[in-house]
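User: I'm preparing a small set of examples for a lab meeting where we compare how different chains pack in three dimensions. I only have the primary sequence for this one, and I'd like the structure in token form so I can line it up with the others. Please keep the answer compact; I'll paste it straight into my notes.
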Amino acid sequence: MTNEVDILVRNARLRGDKGELTDIAIADGCLAEIGKLTDCKARIEIDAGGNLVTPSYVNPHLHLCKVWTLPMMSEDALGAYQGDGMKHALSAIDLASKVKESYHASWIVKNARRAVALAALHGTLHIRAFADVDTKAKLEGVKALLEVHDEFRGIVDLQVVAFAQDGLIREPGADALMREAMAMGADVVGGIPWIEANAADAEAHIKFCFDLAAEFDTDVSMLLDDVGDPNMKTLEVMAREALARGYEGRALAHHCRAIALYPEDYLGELMQLLRQARISVVSDPHTGPLHARVRELLAGDVNVCLGQDDISDAYYPFGRNNMPEVAFLASHLLWMTREKEIATLYEMITTRAAEAMNLGNYGLEAGCAANLVVLDQPSVSEALRFHTQPAAVISHGRLVDAEKMRELARLGRG
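Assistant: Understood. Below is the structure token output for the 414-residue chain.
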């Protein structure tokens, strides 16, 4: 390789490497070489000081059109979503939908910009971002997120999801708006079939989403069985549909909280289906009292990752696009506290999440895109313990301007 590169990270500790420190050379937006690079020079040198350097964080689930809308409504939806074993989750969705009567891209952009700037500060450089599409929200959320997508190009990569939050069959006209959203440039088709009135309508919802995804050649993301009802099994229906259509590896399942209530024999059958369809599961255990049985899914060789889900909206009052913070919370909620389990949690916000989102060229090998976090801590457990902003964030081979991101994060505060 050339002796002069764009960025050189020296004295980096790589995950799982307890021995000698290493150097990472970055050129033309990619990782050029990793090793002891004594003769290499760079325009920018960063001394990691023996601390951890890893691929950047990945957030596969964020309702970006809703961030910081909690002050615009009562806490009734929050109570319905988190109360009584999540039996009233549908009521929570209906209560939360009222805020969309005042949706306008102008203020959604400001809120979303702040959230994405926070992501950049915390080293979260890939987000699957949901925008509600229905007769109340219309296309205002999609317009806003597409604008933020373009604004942060080369800093934080957004996959914008056109999301039928209030249903398709129960929300006449949403299907046409979904197609229009995809034509505008949304990246992923998003569904939520479990809220439909019956199993037949839920299946129709799923089929429409796959039809639309096939039409635009995109992935599918669906919020499934997000309710305290063991009879809710739209995850199985989606998995079978993915297999029938040859959509293996392109359908992502979110929440799936009813898994917590499934009997063991059915869970075993379901996991076999998920493996066959190569469906990953995104769990957000901090935003609701039920959550998918993450440990069992992982033991069953199903890919599982973590998402932020919400930031100060009708379903969750906190959040800041800080994925190590999400993993820290998940460690307690899932009782994943042993060294190997903590390492898995870190994978669930990096490599496993990247796999779920079908991110190409992601990783820490020569030739991968140079998306890295340089931490202030020497180990994964310490990174989760403190979940502070990284010492440096490198996106597409360039240092993220932390001061600019801090200023953008102050916009839209409320």
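A couple of notes for your slides: Residues 161 and 188 are 5 Å apart (CA to CA). The longest helix spans residues 199-216.

User: Perfect, thanks.
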